[in-house]
Amino acid sequence: MNLWVEILQIVPKTPLSLRTMSNQTQVTEFILQGFSEHPEYWMLLFGCFLSLYSVALTGNVLIILAITFNLGLHTPMYFFLLNLATMDIICTSTIMPKALEGLESEESSISYGGCMTQLYFLTWSASSELLLLTIMAYDRYAAICHPLHYSTMMSKAFCSNLAAGVWGLRAFNTATTGLMLHLNFCGPNVITHFFCEIPPLLLLSCSSTYVNSVMIVLADAFYGILNFLMTIVSYGLIISSILKMRTKEGKKKAFSTCSFHLIVVCMYYTAVFYAYISPVSSYSAKKSKLACVLYTMLSPTLNPLIYTLRNKEVKAALRKIFPFCRN
Hints:
By secondary structure, the chain is mainly alpha-helical.
């Protein structure tokens, strides 16, 4: 978040005049730097990224099919897992095709409209995942801390409203992307990333980014910090409730129901905080690329594996859909 404070300090306090803007050429496309600084690793990176993308797509599609066609998985926990898998597909499909194209070619360009579209779907899917992880933490809290009232607390209507709220919050992302559309880009046009990301885009703008920076700080506070604190509170109450259980079997069963989600939460928030809420002194394009690989590629790839490898219900559902996998 300190990154945005620094941007606030370096942007011009007054926008460029209309006369000045009229004498400057507007950028119609951007060049994605990608990983061009390490051309010797392009084949290795291409193979890794293609593998991650393939596994992410396959795994998340299988989760969606297993939950959709198995009535036994029509519960709040799996309902939100289905939504998470859908968001993972949107996130990876927004980033990976262009990233793979950039690795294969010497220079990767993206049109202005394509850049804004990519930015919109990325911010939408990433912020929605944070909201879904918070809702899933609350679901586990209700199941473990209030098992007798779980069906009431997580009713079908309530879960549907929560999911609709997550998908409907894209209006907020529309506002964020809309503010980016009001910026002027006069050159240079090289984005020091492998996709269109807000920090490098703001640094390329030749007009005032004050409003954008304020909006992004508010978004970071809501999607990142507030959701993280709510998730921590939920798991604090869950752990406290588990420790009060008398039997070892009860504790083991309770931990197993939320351990998968806790792993995903820790992995995702670590990457997001590293990418966006790291100190200014330690921020760099290389670190940002690494963090973005973690939450846009590795996390969507590992989510299906984490939720299915030791989940008997999901594996049983997949065996029903694909009989050849029974062994």
